[in-house]
What we know:
Elements: H1 2-28, E1 31-35, E2 40-44, E3 53-58, E4 62-69, E5 72-76, E6 82-86, E7 90-91, H2 96-163, H3 167-188
Antiparallel strand pairs: 1-4, 1-7, 2-3, 4-5, 5-6
Amino acid sequence: MFSLFRSFCQWLFLLSLLLCVSVVKAQTSATPAFISDNLVVYLHSGPGNQYRIIGTLTAGSSVLRLAEEEGYVQVQTEDNRSGWLPKEHLSLTPGLRAQFTELQSRFEQQSVRLTELEQDSGQGQQVVQRLTLERDQALAELEQLKRTNERLSNELDAQQASFWQQPMVLGGAILLFGLLFGLILPKLVPQRRNSDRWM
């Protein structure tokens, strides 16, 4: 009876030691994996269909791959359950559902970015329209200033031309010319000597 108890303890010790070694080995070689695109995958308590079903996993579920044995893979789920499933139901790349979720998230991000860019573009167009309006107003003011400048130049030319046509200015100019002519002409013409002068 004592030997039976001792063999049972030895067997229990070996089993617990083997279990600890497999857990340590499984933890060191755990790699991320994904359930392939089947609808439901059964999780077994051991590496085979003869083991009882302990749960199910849906397509695209993320798991940790712990070990592999006889076409079955031991996995750990996100809620820390551990079980076995056929190797063909496991993929190292995300399934279509996970890829769809990721693409949908990226699409939403890009849609938000596109909306922001459209708003920025709308604001930029408003700024361009405002600057175009200001430029058109400045060009109109410049054209008006050019017309005013031409009108004032024409008026100044007309005033300068009419200055010499005024009677007082014309009379003063004739008087000045006559005075100069009267003073300069006697100096230019030589005077005759008087011959009846006494010597």
